[in-house]
Structure formats: C-alpha cells, structure tokens
Write a structure and sequence with these properties.
The chain is an alpha+beta fold. The chain is 32% helix and 11% strand.
C-alpha cells in the first residue's frame, strides 16, 4: 500500500505486460457476495465479515487485495516500510488502524486488527474518491495503492504502471470463478507439449493469446516494441499452453500467480508454473517447469521461446499449479 504518501515509491520489477488494453475491466461485484476465493482457513471468517463493511468492498475483493499485498503473510514487510498482512505504511496505520479484536491495542501485525482495518480504510478512500468518474471499486483500489489525492488529480486510476497493474490484478482475481481444481497431470502434459511446439517463436512484448502467437504492443522498459513482432511474451506463452489444456489463465504473470496454488518443494511436478519477483504484487516473469530444474519460457525481447534453467533469474519467488476452470475466450 502506498496510500499514506499519495505517490508511488519503489515500482519494483515490471510485469511481463501491464497495459490496460489487454485486460478488460472486471465486472463490479456487489456487497453481500459470498467469499469464493481460496484463502487460509484461519482468515476466512475475518475476511467474510470485514468484506461487507461498505458497498464497494466485498469478501472476494478484500481477499484478492490481501493476496496481492502480502500473500496472506502476517510478517510481510516491504522495502519502503509497509507492514503486515495488509501492508499498511506506519503513518497510515497510525491514522486508520483499529483495535478490531478489542484486546486494548492496535497491532498492524495482528490479522484480527489489520484485516478489518484494511476494509475500513478501503471504505474511507472509497468515500474520498466517490465523485471521481469511472468504476468506484477500481478508483478505490487505486486510492488504496497510490493515495486518494492521485486518483482525484488524474480523474481516475493514475498513470502509474504499478497502480494500474495493482488494480487489474485484484479485480481479475476477485472475479475468478469458484469451484476450480488444480490442473491434472494430463492437463500439465498437454500444456508442456503445446509450449514445446512454440520453441523458437520470437519474443513479442504483449504478444500471444489463447489461440497462439500474435503481435504485441509498445513498449518494454527498455523501449522494445512488440507491435511489429509476432510471438509471445512470458505470460502469453503460459496462457496459450494452458488454454490448449482447457484452462483459462489471466493475462499477466502476477495475475497468473494469483490464479494458481503455491506449492511446497516436494509437491512440484512438470507443468507447474515458475514465478519470479519479490512479492505477489511484483511478479515479473513466468515459465513452465518441465523437470530436472528446467523450464520453457519466453525470456525477453530479442530472444525466442526456449528451454532455460530455473536459476536463470536470481529472484525465483514460487512454483505454483494453475487452477483448472472452463476455458473461454480471452
């Protein structure tokens, strides 16, 4: 959360593609909706109750925000000082933190205080930006991340890549259908075969969809455009491969992590997705594990889809298994 400062601090690693045109806005959810996302059991009741604090907040939206902020880690601390499961900056906590469990102290590290405080603060910023044009939930999330002043200044989601990706990722995860199951070994094998057939396909920033290679967009952090290249970026490749297995993945690497089940080392098998980044909100690369410490990925502009060792990047964050849901047009 960056809401206490109203400016973006520490943008961090860039997603494989974070352009609004590639992800359609998720439908607005209504208050009172049930929690259908998978969350740690010990937090479920807290999220279900706090997720109905005001009309703009739902249990799924709150769960998606906590997943994006900390991956439900109560000990999480960001490089800029954000703390706890909801990643409150100290000054914001001082003003908006509440003693929700009535134990006599406001503890940012205690989820019984932090989760209701996050919901309450969401409602506060929703009120701050209620007159700003556009989707109320999206403006609320942008204000939680970048500050109400930034949303008011720009008349909606500010032009900060981190904030734009933050809003899209949370909205996409909050709208994820319930009832999914982890990808089967057969689906994983199908995804690997589909990816292997794309070996040698050029990297294209923003390229790739459920149907195969496509031209991408402009531009990567280094100024490389995908608009003239037919191919895949990292998440475009994984999206395509799993579409062949009947599984719909979101568009960006960060969103794909949110739509997958993190695994312990002994649980990893071929077909699982390998994610790189420093936290769930700044996942910047994804590949498909094939065994023996290797993966298939679309690594960077100027390269091609290829086999890479898992230690090709220093910030391996997690290996996770996609959740199987009915495939549909993206």
């Amino acid at each position: 959360m960056r809401a206490s400062t109203g400016v973006i601090a520490g943008v961090g690693a860039t997603s494989c593609v974070i352009v609004a045109a590639l992800v359609q806005a998720a439908p607005t959810q209504t208050a009172g909706a049930a929690l259908s996302l998978s969350v740690p059991a010990k937090y479920r009741a807290l999220i279900e109750e706090a997720g109905n604090t005001c009309p703009e907040v739902t249990p799924n939206l709150l769960a998606a925000l906590l997943n994006q902020e900390s991956g439900f880690s109560t000990k999480s601390k960001s490089p800029v000082g954000a703390q706890g499961i909801a990643q409150f900056m100290p000054s914001t906590w001082e003003t908006h933190g509440i003693d929700a469990n009535k134990d006599g102290k406001r503890d940012v590290w205690d989820p019984e205080d932090a989760i209701p405080s996050a919901a309450k603060y969401l409602c506060t910023v929703a009120e701050d930006v209620k007159d700003v044009p556009g989707d109320r939930q999206s403006n609320m999330l942008a204000a939680y991340n970048a500050g109400s002043g930034a949303v008011q200044k720009y008349g909606g989601i500010p032009p900060y890549k981190e904030t734009q990706n933050y809003v899209r990722s949370i909205r996409a995860l909050a709208a994820t259908p319930s009832g999914g199951k982890s990808a089967t070994s057969s689906q994983a094998a199908t995804a690997i075969r589909a990816a292997e057939k794309m070996i040698g396909t050029p990297y294209s920033w923003g390229g790739g969809n459920a149907h195969g290679p496509s031209t991408g967009i402009c531009c990567s952090p280094n100024g490389r455009t995908g608009a003239t290249v037919t191919g895949f970026d990292c998440s475009g490749l994984t999206l395509y491969a799993y579409a062949k297995a009947g599984i719909t993945l979101p568009r960006t690497a960060a969103q794909q992590y949110s739509a997958s089940k993190p695994l312990k080392p002994g649980e990893i098998r071929p077909g699982d997705l390998v994610f790189y980044g420093k936290s769930p909100g700044v996942i910047h690369h994804v590949g498909i594990y094939i065994g023996g410490g290797w993966m298939i990925d679309a690594p960077r502009p100027g390269a091609e889809v290829r086999y890479d060792p898992m230690d090709v990047m220093p910030d391996l964050y997690s290996v996770a298994r996609p959740i199987s849901r009915q495939s549909k047009e993206i």
